[in-house]
Specification:
Number of strands: 0
GO molecular function: DNA-binding transcription factor activity; transcription cis-regulatory region binding
Number of helices: 10
InterPro entries: DNA-bd_HTH_TetR-type_CS (IPR023772), Homeodomain-like_sf (IPR009057), HTH-type_TetR-like_transc_reg (IPR050109), HTH_TetR (IPR001647)
Mean pLDDT: 84
Organism: Actinomadura logoneensis
Strand content: under 5%
Number of domains: 2
CATH class of the largest domain: Mainly Alpha
CATH architecture of the largest domain: Orthogonal Bundle
Structural class: mainly alpha
Keywords: DNA-binding, Transcription, Transcription regulation
Low-confidence stretches: 1-7, 190-195
Pfam families: TetR_N (PF00440)
Length: about 200
């Protein structure tokens, strides 16, 4: 049935997802078929069907795994008051998450925006990004600070694909994007303190 069946099921699924993302990046989601994914892996279509019936199943599994990690981060972030230090740690943890397969998923989203717009996993991912942004800066913050939170997250996302052609290492890209995100989010704490001072009754 092909080499794909030789390893453990979890390893096999990872291999399929990795190869699928490679092909989606090379030729686009719509133009890639399950047959091509199977051929790249050196297995039959039937062997691939054992794990995933459709391309959307492959993408959904990637988004589900990523979504679970974002949900865990959001739950942890809500356990502490959102001070500047806590915001920094939330962003650091999210940036670290994007260093793994999630980074490839962000690249896929950028390259296949039209297709993702029509897929439910894409809708769920966008909802999670908004939730994470609201954790960093909510309705108590100024509009500017709420936008800062969203742009700080986008800085981490876009570094994955906008810096792809730059002659830098993944570590350099990661550190630069994180520094930009930190500069953006640092203003949110100043904005909230200013808003609190304005609301405080005069003595």
């Amino acid at each position: 049935m092909g080499v794909i069946m030789g390893g453990r099921r979890g390893d096999t699924r990872e291999q399929i997802r990795r190869v699928a993302l490679e092909l989606f990046a090379e030729q686009g989601y719509e133009k890639t078929s399950l047959r091509e994914i199977a051929e790249r892996l050196g297995v039959t279509k039937a062997a691939l069907y054992y794990h995933f019936k459709t391309k959307e199943d492959i993408i959904a599994s990637l988004f589900d795994e990523f979504g679970e990690k974002v949900d865990e981060l959001v739950a942890w972030a809500r356990t502490e008051p959102m001070t500047r230090e806590h915001r920094v740690e939330v962003l650091e943890r999210y940036a670290e998450l994007l260093r793994g397969p999630a980074g490839d998923l962000m690249r896929f989203m950028s390259q296949n925006q039209q297709e993702i717009r029509d897929l439910k996993p894409g809708e769920d991912a966008r909802a999670r990004f908004r939730t994470l942004a609201r954790v960093l800066a909510d309705d108590r913050d100024t509009v500017i600070d709420q936008l800062r939170a969203r742009v700080s997250i986008m800085a981490l996302h876009t570094s994955v694909f906008l810096a792809h052609d730059m002659d830098i290492s993944d570590d350099e890209r990661h550190e630069a994007a994180l520094e930009i995100a930190m500069e953006l989010i640092g203003g949110a704490d100043r904005g909230r303190r200013a808003a609190e001072r304005e609301e405080r009754p005069a003595s």
